[in-house]
């Protein structure tokens, strides 16, 4: 793993309470690493989401985001979890933009399935099985690359600036697609075909950041419904010019995710 002032995963420390769409900034070594040993992340340059705007979003107690893949399954990032197997330590919170709202709904994890073969590079997805169904809308996972273009929405309770604090309220922002050839100029270790880039290259200023890891990057499909095209994974700092955010390309792993969910 690179040092916190270079490329790092975007998971936050346990107990962080907010997620926002923001640029990544340098963190101290204490801030950059979560309890499970991975670095942290958040959203920069965002605005508060409206209640009910992204009802498929959930906050995970280890300091990551996630999306409702099924009524009792959350899709998140592989680097947010510590392997596969029985796990009752994670709490998923959803149904609200304010994490302190009494209207929040919660569920505990029972099992975790980390992407088979995950070694810290690419394949950054995982599923968390919950102990009960949550009455929350689901977001469809893209099963083709048809929507890997144009502009995406990012959201989270992560830091609102590089080195910043986790957020109480859900933040949102829009970021443009960055093609692989351009992204490779920023990151020569980009795993083409498994990772998708997005961000404002010339000025920076908008990005996911520490605490946003595992959350969805999404857009509208041809039916005007939200579809998830990415999972917040990593980047160099937060919202730096020339350094876009890197996201797991959901369409590449759609079949694997569906198979894993069925097994859970």
Give the oligomer, counting copies of the same chain as homo and different chains as hetero. Answer: single chain
Written as H for each helix and E for each strand, in order along the chain, the element string is EHEEEEEEEEEEEHEEEEH
Helix content: under 10%
Biggest β-sheet: strands ordered side by side in the sheet: 11-12-13-16-15-14
Distance between the termini: 30 Å
Low-confidence stretches: 1-6, 13-42
Please tell me the overall pLDDT. 87
Radius of gyration: 16 Å
The total beta strand count reads 16
Instruction: Give the percentage of residues in beta strands.
Output: 25-35%
Signal peptide: 1-34
InterPro entries: Peptidase_S1_PA (IPR009003), Peptidase_S1_PA_chymotrypsin (IPR043504), Peptidase_S1A (IPR001314), Trypsin_dom (IPR001254), TRYPSIN_HIS (IPR018114), TRYPSIN_SER (IPR033116)
Keywords: Disulfide bond, Hydrolase, Protease, Serine protease, Signal
Protein name: Trypsin-like serine protease
